[in-house]
Amino acid sequence: MSDSIIIIGAGVIGLSIAWRLASRGARVSVYDRAKAGSGASHAAAGMLAACTEIEPGEEWLLPLNRESQRLWPAFAEELEHVSGMSIDLRQEGTLHVALNADEHARLRHHLALQEKMALPVNWLSAAEVRAREPLLAGAAGGIWSPEDHQVDNRKLAQALRIAALKVGVTLHEETQVDRIIIEDGYATAVEIAGEHHSATTIVLAAGAWSRGICGLTPDIRPPVRPIKGQMLALGMEADNPLIRHVIWASGIYLVPRLDGRLIVGATVEERGFDECLTAGGMLSLLQNAWRALPGIEELPLIETWTGFRPGSRDDAPILGPSAVPGLVYATGHHRNGILQTPVTADAITRLILDGQRDEISLPFDASRFRPAAISRG
Ligand code: FAD
Ligand code: GLY
Hints:
The protein is of the alpha/beta class. The chain has 2 domains: 4-81 and 153-224 and 313-376, FAD/NAD(P)-binding domain; 91-147 and 225-310, 2-Layer Sandwich (D-Amino Acid Oxidase, Chain A, domain 2). Helices cover 29% and strands 25% of the residues. The protein has 9 helices and 19 strands. It has helices spanning 12-23, 40-43, 62-83, 101-116, 126-132, 153-166, 279-292, 341-354, 371-376; strands at residues 5-8, 28-31, 47-48, 94-98, 122-124, 141-145, 149-150, 170-172, 179-183, 186-192, 195-198, 201-204, 224-235, 246-249, 252-256, 261-265, 301-312, 318-321, 327-331. The strands form 4 sheets. An 8-stranded mixed sheet has the order 5-6-4-14-15-16-13-17. Helix 1 (12-23) crosses helix 8 (341-354), helix 3 packs across helix 6 (153-166) and helix 3 (62-83) packs across helix 8 (341-354). The chain starts with a strand and ends with a helix. The structure holds flavin-adenine dinucleotide and glycine (GLY). The site of flavin-adenine dinucleotide has 44 residues, from helix 1, helix 2, strand 13 and strand 17.
């Protein structure tokens, strides 16, 4: 069969692209070497934090992140309608707090960066922070980001799986793609257990593993590596949670879920695919969380895990055609893949079905990593 699209990877990126493509009538097969949604998409915290997470030097990422943030409510509504399940999009905003004078100064500096970029944020006094979140340790003030929301990323992946199947996507779980076949300069097929499966377009959406799939010559291997994150979840009373907003404090974020889970994240480590939970990782998460929210002391520890962010060389996603016709990249989403799901799905779908590049995705073309582009600066 040669008129079909093959997607490698059934995380939120591969599944959302598959859903969008098949909704428009395309014939799509998705392969995942594990269960759908079990990679970084399972490990994430689900924050849609374009304003809070902005770092100096990442200004160029902001239009993509803000556009995806804008798309999120309608995307969630449509997905919930098609899948028949809730994904717990909570639109309550994010609070980034300073707990002492040093952090206060640092946060004011961060606020200046956010204001320079005209982001919708404002400073809250200590009393205003207390009014929003009374159980936080005495904060010296904080930044309020009313447009930074959260979604339950595990439910998101589950809903995307259901929606994709409903529109006719063929999903092959526990089926590893061993090789991408390139013939006469065209990506024409994938190899699975010794058999070739041909396609008109192959989408590489294998997250942190995207670089390691055989068949890619060095010039077309996307520069993506795993960035390890350790996380844990504590159990609050669902009807009496300690906090109601996503909270950021020094070295930590806290994400309250509707079911009472309190997600505490996350370490950022260059350790390859090391799945080990470490005493140091857990200690720093718990210590920083306790410092911000002392009431966690009595909560049960209900889950610990690691995940691998797909980090590209410049920490931004790689979206669009490769140098080989037939092969498209949708990878490298690093810390923002949940946030960037709607904008990625739309951009890749339009590229494949209409041959159009969305203006907003152009800066994220893989060509930025080619030697000529690098030497041009
Ligand atoms: P994945 O979900 O990793 O999916 C890739 C899939 O490819 C996997 O299922 C894997 O099994 C499959 N695969 C790999 N190799 C093959 C092969 N050869 N054949 C077939 N299948 C293959 N983002 C946010 O926006 N907000 C957050 O709050 C947030 N928090 C995070 C916290 C942590 C600790 C981590 C680790 C990540 C976080 N992220 C967050 C980032 C986000 O999780 C990722 O950017 C996003 O999930 C990437 O999705 P993906 O579909 O590309 O990758
Ligand atoms: N975006 C949160 C994280 O990657 O830890």
